[in-house]
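Q: Given only this backbone (305 positions), what sequence would you predict?
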């Protein structure tokens, strides 16, 4: 088992003096050098521990070193493990086989300490970089998961607020009590779909204006939409249903940043639309006594599909 905070290096050789020689050369407080005397025991080690590097003898008691390397590479956990082959004597054909098996280097005994430490330093630096990258990637994924969860909770909270608001009649005496008794979605379903599309387009253009500074103003389109809804005797439930339907379309399969921006801009438009409708209803009731007479407002309504 590799101690916490140390970097593991595995030596694989069936000849004890060779292991001792390598251990002496690799003496370093930041390293934990472990040894295996066979290919089978080396495979168990690399599957059980996170090693930065393996020094692998070409000749092993139970199998060829090249065969052992291929076994390492077949395992997902050790597929990227750097392997330095150590040979008792130079052999060009064996060297070729070692590199084909995934070696990062091929060295011949007797090993030169300076060259060995220089190669080790480069590979250890690469290992540290990969570890850091892996940690940062994990942190990023966790942050993204946390952000997605926050966004989900925010949208759930907003949905609950909208549902409570749509089911409440308090504070909206004119619109909630005298209008919207039958949802527009039920009384004029085709027109309702067109109104959702219209609101959706206003929201898209309004969001693009914020992002790209196009100068678009939603005030007039919102007023026109409010006029149509008043003509249909729409209530707050109709408005909120239009808002939710449009958001569902605009947020489907979109990046989280775009969803957040759309939701935020939608809040402003929803308030503006409700305010415009309330203002129209109140102005109607100031001019006319008794129930609201729809003939006073005749906007160009969608004809439906």
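A: Predicted residues:
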């Amino acid at each position: 088992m590799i101690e916490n905070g140390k970097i593991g290096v595995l030596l694989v050789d069936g000849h004890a003096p060779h292991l001792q020689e390598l251990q002496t050369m690799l003496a370093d407080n930041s390293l934990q050098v472990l040894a295996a005397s066979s290919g089978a025991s080396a495979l168990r080690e690399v599957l059980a521990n996170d090693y930065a590097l393996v020094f692998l003898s070409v000749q092993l008691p139970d199998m060829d070193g090249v065969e052992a390397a291929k076994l390492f590479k077949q395992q997902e956990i050790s597929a990227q493990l750097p392997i330095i082959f150590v040979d008792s004597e130079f052999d060009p054909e064996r060297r070729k086989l070692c590199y084909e098996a995934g070696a990062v280097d091929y060295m011949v005994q007797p090993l030169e300490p300076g060259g060995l430490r220089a190669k080790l330093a480069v590979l250890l630096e690469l290992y540290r970089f990969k570890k850091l990258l892996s940690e940062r990637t994990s942190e990023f994924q966790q942050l993204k998961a946390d952000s997605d969860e926050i966004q989900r909770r925010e949208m759930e909270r907003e949905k609950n607020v909208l549902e409570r608001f749509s089911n409440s009649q308090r504070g909206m005496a004119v619109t909630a009590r005298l209008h919207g008794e039958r949802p527009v979605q039920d009384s004029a379903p085709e027109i309702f779909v067109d109104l959702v599309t219209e609101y959706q387009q206003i929201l898209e253009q309004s969001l693009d204006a914020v992002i790209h500074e196009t100068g678009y103003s939603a005030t007039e389109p919102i007023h026109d939409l409010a006029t149509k809804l008043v003509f249909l005797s729409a209530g707050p439930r109709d408005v909120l249903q239009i808002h939710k339907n449009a958001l569902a379309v605009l947020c489907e399969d979109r990046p989280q940043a775009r969803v957040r921006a759309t939701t935020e801009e939608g809040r402003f438009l929803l308030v503006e639309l409700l305010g415009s409708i309330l203002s129209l209803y109140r102005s109607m009731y100031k001019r006319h006594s008794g129930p609201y007479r729809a003939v006073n407002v005749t906007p160009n309504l969608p004809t439906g599909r």
